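Key result, reporting period 2: structure in, sequence out.
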């Protein structure tokens, strides 16, 4: 069993406060992804879990044991970095074996472990190569192999795919998902890339400016973002936002003008009063072209990506509005079209960016 609990963690570097009251429970065998923009504190939090960084206050608990003051070697954790940090003069075999040599593991056990890791990572026929003779993806797998042989209770990954080209990143996402199934071990994975988070995670932790913004499964965050930030960060292309205000409140729900039409929203008004600023959120994939009525859109750019067509243009106050349509669409740049915004698919946010709940 390997669980990780973070309790009331704060971290400052001198005067700079980086993490604020982080509370999180990571279950046994879970694949958890920390996602957020650059500088939000992901690496710092991962280093705190590994023991490479000390907390300013709060505790790190692994398998019900408080390890807040324990050195990295006593935590049973292994970390894979973005820079692979391989030894260029050593073979793949010796790179993977390195932590076992340091731990003075006997030769037979060492070989067994290295061969097993190489087998899982499909590196068996590369064991005599030097890192310089490998592709980026293979080098990353060697770095992961060096982690696997240590049999850690928890694997930590810090943006391990950032140095790879897009196609290879896609392949490696699948490889890492398989690795998680094979090893059946708790994994914590850091990325700024929401697609990596959506595709790999059992549980996503969205961080923003050192605070946990929301925790949930990928589809939970997609369907029920608690804030405008999460709504705009999760999902690709990004959610569209339109500024408006509540025109009236009726039976706890609000209405709002979108273009020329007043729409009754199936969304709880909460503390919102008539006249208050509201932002409506609608995902590009939830839009349709309308034959009559709807909201006007001026189309600037059309991207045919095969299965779908992505339109970019202006709708009301939003000049970066995006709609995803079926591939048979014949809409061209410069076209003026009308789109249907379905209130049942809309999200809404108050002026402090909190989501109003759909019901
Ligand atoms: N050793 C350090 N000394 C001072 N500030 C640091 C140090 N490490 C990180 N920071 C600051 O902490 C914040 C979070 O950094 P980091 O955890 O690396 O973010 P992320 O991994 O999400 O990009 C940044 O503002 C960064 O400049
Ligand atoms: Mg980082």
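The corresponding designed sequence is given below.
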């Amino acid at each position: 069993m390997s669980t990780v609990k973070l309790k009331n963690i704060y971290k400052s570097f001198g005067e700079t406060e980086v993490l604020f009251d982080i509370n999180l429970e990571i279950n046994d065998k879970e694949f958890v992804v920390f996602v957020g923009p650059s500088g939000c504190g992901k690496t710092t939090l991962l280093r705190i879990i590994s023991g490479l960084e000390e907390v300013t206050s709060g505790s790190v608990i692994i398998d019900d044991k408080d390890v807040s003051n324990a050195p990295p070697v006593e935590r049973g954790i292994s970390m894979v970095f973005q820079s692979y940090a391989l030894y260029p003069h050593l073979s793949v075999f010796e790179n993977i074996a390195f932590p076992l040599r340091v731990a003075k593991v006997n030769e037979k056990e060492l070989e067994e472990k290295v061969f097993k890791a190489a087998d899982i990572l499909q590196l068996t026929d590369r064991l005599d190569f030097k890192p310089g003779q490998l592709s980026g993806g293979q080098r990353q797998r060697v770095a992961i192999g060096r982690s696997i042989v240590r049999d850690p209770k928890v694997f930590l990954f810090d943006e391990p795919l950032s140095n790879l080209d897009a196609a290879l990143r896609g392949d490696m996402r699948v490889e890492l998902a398989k690795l998680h199934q094979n090893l059946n071990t708790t994994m914590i994975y850091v990325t700024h890339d929401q697609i990596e988070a959506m595709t790999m995670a059992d549980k996503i932790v969205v961080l923003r400016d050192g605070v946990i913004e929301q925790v949930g499964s990928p589809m939970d965050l997609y369907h029920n973002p608690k804030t405008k930030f999460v709504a705009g960060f999760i999902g690709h292309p990004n959610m569209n936002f339109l500024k408006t205000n509540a025109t009236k409140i009726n039976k706890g729900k609000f209405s709002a003008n979108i273009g020329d039409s007043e729409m009754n929203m199936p969304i709880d008004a909460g503390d919102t009063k008539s006249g208050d600023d509201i932002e409506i959120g609608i995902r590009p994939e939830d839009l349709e072209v309308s034959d009559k009525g709807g909201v006007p859109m001026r189309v600037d750019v059309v991207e045919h990506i095969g299965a779908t067509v992505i339109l970019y243009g202006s709708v009301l106050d939003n000049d970066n509005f995006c709609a995803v349509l079926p591939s048979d669409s014949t809409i061209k740049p410069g076209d003026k079209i009308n789109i249907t915004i379905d209130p049942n698919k809309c999200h809404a946010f108050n002026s402090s960016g909190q989501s109003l709940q759909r019901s």
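Residues 42-43 surround magnesium ion (ligand 2) (CB under 6 Å). The helical segments are 42-50, 92-102, 107-120, 136-148, 166-183, 194-200, 218-223, 228-233. This case is discussed further under Risks and Mitigation.
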